[in-house]
Amino acid sequence: MALVLAPFGFSVSQISWIGALGFFIGAPAAFLFGIVLDKTRAYKKSLFLSCFILILFSIFFPMALNRGAGYLETTSYMMVFFSMSMILAFLCMSFSVEVTYPLNASVINGTLQMFAQVIATLLALSGTMWMAADYSQGAPSAEEIEA
């Protein structure tokens, strides 16, 4: 995270806090989503809601970089909350296994992991290109980053 956030003026301590608090937000999120899913069995609605919110905050993330620590922290925490709830509570996995019952669960989970990695790679590349557009005049020097 430091390589991404340092050019935008974030200190090492700010970046550390964002990462540490993200961990402490992700674990309760997974726990809460697990409880809600066990009681409601609303896999599809929860999946659509989580994906919509993740896409929304993924769009806001590059904009938050230029706005300051408060915007970036809020955006990061919301992304962590909804992504960890999907990953750790196995929202996607449980729903996919339920929908494709006759197929082997390991095939479905492996396919989902494969597509998740492809999409994450595409998002990382598009975000890198978007942030690189800000450096059309050249990347900041080491002195500018440390100042």
Short description:
The chain has 7 helices and no strands. The chain is an all-alpha fold and 147 residues long. Helix 3 runs antiparallel to helix 5 (91-99).
What does this structure look like?
The chain is built from seven helices and no strands. It is mostly helical and 147 residues long. The protein has one domain (10-132). Helix 2 (12-40) packs parallel to helix 4, helix 3 (43-65) packs antiparallel against helix 5 (91-99) and helix 5 (91-99) packs across helix 6. The protein is elongated, with a radius of gyration of 18 Å. It starts with a helix and ends with a helix. 16% of the residues are buried.
- Extract low-pLDDT stretches: none
Structural classification: mainly alpha
The whole-angstrom Rg is 18 Å
Tell me about the largest β-sheet. none
Number of helices: 7
For the residues shown, what is the average pLDDT? Answer: 77
Number of domains: 1
Overall number of strands:
0
Give the helix/strand layout:
Elements: H1 2-5, H2 12-40, H3 43-65, H4 69-88, H5 91-99, H6 105-133, H7 142-146
Helix pairs in contact: 2-4, 3-4, 3-5, 5-6
Features:
single chain; 147 residues; mainly alpha; 81% helix; 0% strand; elongated
